[in-house]
Write a structure and sequence with these properties.
The complex is a heterodimer of chains A (230) and B (409).
Chain A: E1 5-14, E2 21-31, E3 36-40, H1 47-54, E4 62-67, E5 70-71, H2 77-87, E6 88-91, H3 103-114, H4 118-131, H5 147-160, E7 165-169, H6 177-194, E8 197-202, H7 205-208, E9 213-218, E10 221-227
Parallel strand pairs in A: 3-8, 3-9, 6-7, 7-8
Antiparallel strand pairs in A: 1-2, 1-4, 4-5, 9-10
Helix pairs in contact in A: 3-4, 3-5, 4-5, 5-6
Chain B: H1 2-11, H2 15-55, E1 58-62, E2 75-76, H3 79-86, E3 93-105, E4 110-118, H4 120-126, E5 133-136, E6 149-154, H5 155-161, E7 168-174, E8 180-191, E9 201-205, H6 206-212, E10 218-219, E11 221-225, H7 232-242, E12 249-253, H8 254-257, H9 259-297, H10 299-307, H11 312-347, E13 350-358, E14 361-366, H12 372-398, H13 402-406
Parallel strand pairs in B: 4-9, 6-8
Antiparallel strand pairs in B: 1-11, 1-12, 2-10, 3-4, 3-7, 3-11, 5-8, 6-9, 7-8, 13-14
The chains are: A alpha/beta (230), B alpha+beta (409).
Chain lengths: 230, 409
């Protein structure tokens, strides 16, 4: 099976000389389609940097990121935007919903960028919001939703456009433990049923238990790659 | 639609700031409409008056006459030519004139004058000459019982020659055949003021001028009017086409005939634009400040939008749409509110604090303009300025690096 994500000797440094910080140092990982992978490690280990580089939000100092065999570091700004729009769904730690758009409109936005017809957009959005348990809350603005509900909208937004990969940077960090577990269960269900590839970062041991694969990072280097039975 | 909705909701985020920005654009539009209306309304009034009374909208003369008027450059001044001219498309009125100079003598004094031979009836219909008679009466085309032609003289001529109504004047000049022209005329009217453009003029019937200057069946030019002075150039072109077989003659618009007057008007209009630029500049500063602030405040959000796949071009468009929405709503509000004001200015007008003389007639009252361009041009200027101003903030948003921008969240 062709890997959906592959990094080759990926490095990202900040500063120079005495102040040089190696956020990622020579990272090589391969993720197959449909995996439910957690990038784990302590704060400052490089988890977020790795996700940002995989998602094309940041540019590596050296090495390559290949998504479905396409090298994203060679893409221009516009090409990257289009690639993210069509192939990657993001779930951020702070939800990052558009405050002036309702839950449904936040989800609809990416499909609008993709040029999907309005009727289809609406149908998919309402179905997806129902799947994440937000039926009846479609027209609410983000500030009218709880943190857990906002993160569910963020999950729905990431998934509704049916991307190849969903990258989630500590998606449960701002949620209480029960809401976090519920959210992760929901993501796992979607992964099983929809077959999407999930890569998320966490340092919460309870969350790690749900992942089918754990990539341990410390000081910017992969120290352990552990596959687990589902 | 969602982009439009997003833009609309974004501008409603900070209502007070939006309101202040819209007030500045609204004010700019309001002032521009009224300024355009008053300035171009007064120009239109002056041009209409000037062309109707003085130059006509176009003139037919011998080639080269407009650059160097001479006694010898003649055009046909026959009924047949008049009928043919009136049959040309767009021509509504026409009159023929002889213009030359002479030395005028009164009882004991002499004075150099400009002599105008005009068609008495046509001129009365076409120009304001009849209304400019201050003393006496408008003259007759036919000589009086003693076989003297009647003339009307300018106020300066009357003063310099110390003549009044009922007095005689003698004119001496040169005929087109090289002979010495001299004749006696009866003064029946004094026209204009001492400062007016007719002050040094002597008006006589065309037939009298043809006799005096020995130009039988001829004149120096035809002044032609059309329905709208804005069609002057088109009229001149049409007439020039008509005259193509008569290589000796040409038609030119009033802008060529009264080149100096036209250039002065244009310079005045250009001067007026300075005031408009100041209004536009002030509006632009206000808008730039608001849009830039709005973009800076939303840097993190733009980072998210870009991260989830919004292209730089769409982000750019979003900022431009937001600004254009502000400008569009401001112009719409301005249009609704300025309409009654401009209607009043255009229909009732206003008195000039210092009345001015145009073509010998005192203008003490001005009116604004009421047409589409008075409302549309300021709207286009405000919208265009807003679009231009939004480019810089829009570029800033479009060039945002997602990961850096999202750090500000």
């Amino acid at each position: 099976m062709k890997p959906v994500i592959e990094t080759r000797n990926l490095s990202r440094h900040y500063g120079a000389g005495d102040t040089l910080v190696k956020a990622l140092d020579d990272v090589n990982i391969v993720i197959e389609p449909g995996e439910f992978t957690a990038i784990v490690g302590p704060s400052g280990s490089g988890k977020s940097t790795l996700l940002q580089l995989i998602g094309g939000l940041d540019i590596p100092n050296s090495g390559k990121v290949l998504l479905s065999d396409k090298e994203i570091s060679e893409m221009s700004g516009s090409e990257l935007s289009d690639f993210r729009r069509d192939h990657i769904g993001f779930i951020f730690q702070a939800y990052n919903l558009i405050p002036v758009l309702s839950a449904a409109e936040n989800c609809e936005y990416i499909m609008l960028l993709q040029g999907i017809p309005a009727a289809e957009r609406k149908e998919r959005v309402y179905k997806m919001l129902a799947e994440v348990g937000l039926e009846g809350r479609e027209t609410r603005l983000p500030n009218q939703l709880s943190g857990g509900q906002q993160q569910r909208v963020a999950v729905a937004r990431a998934m509704v456009s049916q991307p190849d990969i969903i990258l989630a940077d500590e998606p449960t960090a701002n949620l209480d433990s029960q809401t976090g577990m519920d959210l992760l269960d929901m993501m796992h269900d979607l992964n099983r049923h929809e077959g999407m590839t999930f890569v998320f970062s966490t340092h919460d041991p309870k969350i790690m238990e749900r992942a089918s694969r754990l990539i341990h990072i410390e000081d910017g280097r992969v120290i352990k790659d552990e596959r687990r039975e589902d | 639609m969602l982009m439009l909705k997003l833009a609309f909701r974004n501008i409603l985020r900070n209502k007070r700031r939006t309101l202040l920005t819209m007030l500045s654009m609204f004010g700019g539009y309001f002032l521009l409409v009224l300024s355009f209306s008053v300035q171009f309304g007064s120009y239109e009034q002056v041009i209409k008056f000037f062309t109707k009374d003085s130059t006509g909208h176009a003139q037919i003369s011998e080639v080269g006459y407009q650059d160097k008027p001479t006694l010898y450059a003649a055009v046909p001044a026959t009924d047949e030519f008049y009928q043919q001219l009136m049959a040309q498309p767009g021509v509504t009125q026409a009159t023929s004139r002889i213009v030359s100079s002479a030395l005028a003598y009164g009882e004991s004094k002499s004075f150099p004058v400009r002599v105008l031979g005009i068609d008495v009836d046509k001129e009365a219909d076409m120009t304001f000459l009849k209304e400019k008679v201050k003393q006496g009466r408008y003259f007759n085309a036919q000589p009086d019982v003693d076989d003297y032609y009647e003339v009307m003289i300018g106020a300066s001529v009357a003063q310099q020659l110390q003549v009044t109504i009922g007095d005689e004047i003698i004119l001496i000049s040169q005929g087109a055949d090289g002979s010495i022209a001299n004749d006696l005329y009866m003064v029946v009217g004094i026209i204009g003021t001492k400062d007016g453009q007719e002050a040094r003029d002597v008006y006589m019937p065309l037939a009298a001028a043809q006799d005096f200057f020995v130009m039988p069946g001829q004149s120096h030019y035809w002044a032609v009017l059309t329905e709208n002075y804005k069609e002057s150039t088109a009229l001149a072109t049409e007439l020039d086409q008509w005259l193509v077989d008569q290589k000796r003659l040409e038609a030119v618009s009033w802008q060529v005939v009264a080149d100096e007057f036209y250039r002065t008007m244009k310079a005045d209009i250009d001067g007026g634009y300075v005031a408009y630029y100041i209004i536009i500049f002030l509006v632009c500063i206000g808008v730039l400040n608001t849009v830039l602030m709005s973009v800076m405040e939303r840097t993190g959000e733009f980072g998210v939008l870009k991260a989830i796949g919004t292209s730089p071009r769409r982000l750019f468009a979003l900022i431009v749409i937001e600004t254009m929405l502000l400008a569009g709503i401001s112009c719409l509000a301005g249009f609704i509110l300025v309409m009654p004001f401009n209607y009043y200015v255009a229909s009732v007008g206003f008195a000039l604090p210092n009345p001015m003389e145009v073509s010998g007639v005192i203008m003490s009252h001005m009116r604004g303009l009421w047409n589409v361009s008075v409302f549309l041009e300021p709207a286009l200027i405000v919208l265009g300025s807003a679009a231009f101003i939004s480019i810089f903030p829009a570029l800033r948003a479009a060039r945002i690096v997602p990961i850096k921008a999202m750090r500000s969240l």
